[in-house]
Every structure is written in structure tokens, then in C-alpha cells.
Amino acid sequence: MNTARRRWLAGILVAALAAAGAGCAEEPSNRPPPTLRAPDVPYEPAAPAVVNEMLKLGRIAPGNTVYDLGCGDGRVVIAAVRDYAARGVCVDIDPRRIAEARANAAKAGVSGRIEFRNEDLFTTRIADADAVMLFLWPEVNLALRPRLLEELKPGTRVVSHWHTMGAWEPERTVHVSARGRSRPLYLWTIPRPEARPVFPDAAPPRRP
């Protein structure tokens, strides 16, 4: 085979390989996005009675923006939007939970009033919240506490299912009977900057 013919065949081969590669690159992927990091707490959906009482305790009103940090299947935000004419933001670090929340919101017909974020609750923006709902663990609440106090506007309500905020005393506590247990719910309201408390039990800085 002469040199010219070898060059011609080599050019055809290179072009074919490039086209094949481009075709593979354009194929849509059905894989879910990767998890940003391991979730802080295991997934445990709140009972409907707990969801209802959290929203009552948080004094949710029409037009409020309700965040759920660690939203799971989205049930708290969906109820806030459906039952209180609020707007909602679902935040969860696990893409599977966000996908589930999207599907549940679509079934409930409220997707248009909910924002879904596959983000870390320690870095997602929260400044526009009127109410923040939590069902985390004590050490996560403690680590999150500085963000809530520094970034939320005065008057924002924070409601936590089951766990306190350490030395930050709740202004109200209620108990709900669900799944055979009495479950505490706690309410705090973000104070003005000059009234912001200083706590002796500050959590150590979180590592990324």
C-alpha cells in the first residue's frame, strides 16, 4: 500500500472515531446527580400530625416563604403551599430526596410555587425565608444555629421537630402524639441584631 493511500485510510479512521465519540457524548444520561456529601441525618419522614402542628407553630401565612432544610420527600413544604397559600423551598443534599419531593409536589399540583435545591443546608442561601422547618439532630441544630441567627431577618420563625438549639431557649414548646410517641416541637423567632444572644455552647466549626 502506497503512502498516499495509507494517509487517506488513516484520515477516515480518525474521522470515524471522532464521530463515534461525539455521538456518545451527546447521549442523555439517566444517572442521578452525585450526592454532594453524606447526609447529616438518616431520612425519617415526619408524621402528618407533626407536619400540621409545625406549620401552625410557625404561624405560616399566605405569601410566606417556607424553607425545609433537609426536606426529605417534601411533605412539610408541600403542606405549607397547599394548605396555607405559602411559597416553599425544599433543600436536601440527597438527590434522591429532591427527586421524590419534586414528584410529590407534582402530584399535589403545587410544583409551580416550590423551589427544589439539591444543596448543602450549611451553604444554601436562606436570607429570604419567613419560616424555617427542621427535623435534624442536636449537633446539626447546634452547628446550624449561627447561620440562622446571622442570615435570617428579624421575625423569621424557626421550628424544630424533636431537637432543641442548645442554650438558645425556645419561646414555645408543644407536644404532638404521633406513631405512639409524644413528639416535642420547638419555636424560636430571630431577634434584632442588637438583641442577638451569645451562647456558651457554640458548636465547633464544620469541616467541608
Descriptive overview:
The model is unreliable at 3-10 and 12-29 (pLDDT under 50). The longest helix is centred in the N-terminal third of the chain and has 24 residues, at 3-26. With 208 residues, this protein is an alpha/beta fold. It has a seven-stranded mixed β-sheet, with helices on one face. The protein has helices at 3-26, 48-57, 75-84, 95-108, 138-151; strands at 65-69, 87-91, 114-117, 131-134, 157-161, 172-178, 181-189. Helix 2 crosses helix 3 (75-84).
Could you give the order of the helices and strands?
HHEHEHEEHEEE
**Which spans have pLDDT < 50 for at least 5 consecutive residues?**
3-10, 12-29
CA distance, first residue to last residue: 60 Å
Instruction: State the major sheet.
Output: 7 strands, mixed
Q: What percent of residues adopt helix (DSSP H or I)?
A: 25-40%
Calculate Rg over CA atoms. Answer: 24 Å
**How many helices does DSSP assign?**
5
* Number of distinct beta strands: 7
Overall mean confidence score, pLDDT: 87
Beta-strand residue percentage: 15-25%
Rough shape?
globular
Strand order of the largest sheet: 3-2-1-4-5-7-6
**Structural class given helices, strands, pairing?**
alpha/beta
